[in-house]
Amino acid sequence: MPQNALHGLVGLAVCRRMGRNAAQAQPWVMGVILGLMLPDADLYPAGILRLAGVIDGFDVIHRTATHSLFLVVLLMILGGVFRSKPVWSAACMGLSLGVGLHIFLDVFMWFSALPLLWPLNVLGEGDLGVVDVWKGVEIPEMAKSFRDVLEMLFAAIYLTSLAKIGREDPGTSSARKLKGCVYVCWGLLAVTSVVAFFVPYDGKMVFVTGVLLLVFVLPVLWWQTWRLRAPITAWCLR
Ligand SMILES: [Zn+2]
């Protein structure tokens, strides 16, 4: 990460500026936005393994394969391979750009090291390709708690944006359904903001926000993005 919905907002901004030039607009737009959001899907296996107490999945799985520059290159190559299938090619090129932007944002906006050349850092000696712009900076526990709480704030802002985009498209009956999700996100923001003052980050706070993310916030963000792919594309082309 940074906050997953913040990635989504960056995706909307990028596609709004560049969407007009995309030959296959919808697969390209969805590729960019979901490419920005989906690398954090590795939180699911990481979270399950951590809860099961098998290994610390956040160290072993999160921000590895889905955050590697090799994935960006692989998607770009696939975009070329699928040249005869324009929809697949556009989706791969969009995903490549989206994942690349996700990695760029993660390097600067999340307080930890990122193995840009995974798996070389695991296979080889030393920390090959590991970038840590926050090295030597002591991050207070409270800052980490509120970094996670901000997931709810950006989710509310992102879903509000999607509702607005949906309303502009007369063929979509999306706005009302989204409103409920937006209210839930504002509610979660209020509750987790209070809880963050009383619960230490590594004690329980990381689990509180982690479970909310995995069970509600991330599935809603990704599903609503996909569900509104037609009005989002139309908005980006306008
Ligand atoms: Zn990430």
Bound molecules: zinc ion
Secondary-structure element pattern, one letter each: HHHHHHEHEHHHH
Rg:
18 Å
Overall pLDDT confidence: 89
Total of helices? 11
Q: List low-confidence stretches.
A: none
Number of strands: 2
For the record, the count of structural domains works out to: 1
Question: Can you walk through the features of this model?
Answer:
The chain is about 70% helix and about 0% strand. It is mainly alpha-helical and about 240 residues long. It is globular and about 45 Å long. It has helices at about 5-20, 25-35, 45-50, 55-60, 70-80, 85-110, 120-125, 140-170, 175-200, 200-225, 230-235; strands spanning about 115, 130. It has one domain. It is built from eleven helices and two strands. The chain has a two-stranded antiparallel ribbon. Zinc ion binds near residues 39, 40 and 67.
Comma- or semicolon-separated keywords:
238 residues, mainly alpha, 11 helices, globular, binds zinc ion
Give a brief outline of the structure.
The protein has 238 residues and is mainly alpha-helical. It has helices at 4-18, 25-37, 43-52, 57-60, 69-81, 86-109, 120-123, 141-168, 175-198, 201-227, 229-237; strands at residues 114-115, 130-131. The longest helix has 28 residues, at 141-168.
Task: Give the topology.
Elements: H1 4-18, H2 25-37, H3 43-52, H4 57-60, H5 69-81, H6 86-109, E1 114-115, H7 120-123, E2 130-131, H8 141-168, H9 175-198, H10 201-227, H11 229-237
Antiparallel strand pairs: 1-2
Bound molecules: zinc ion.
Residues 1, 39-40, 63, 67, 102, 106 line the site of zinc ion (ZN).
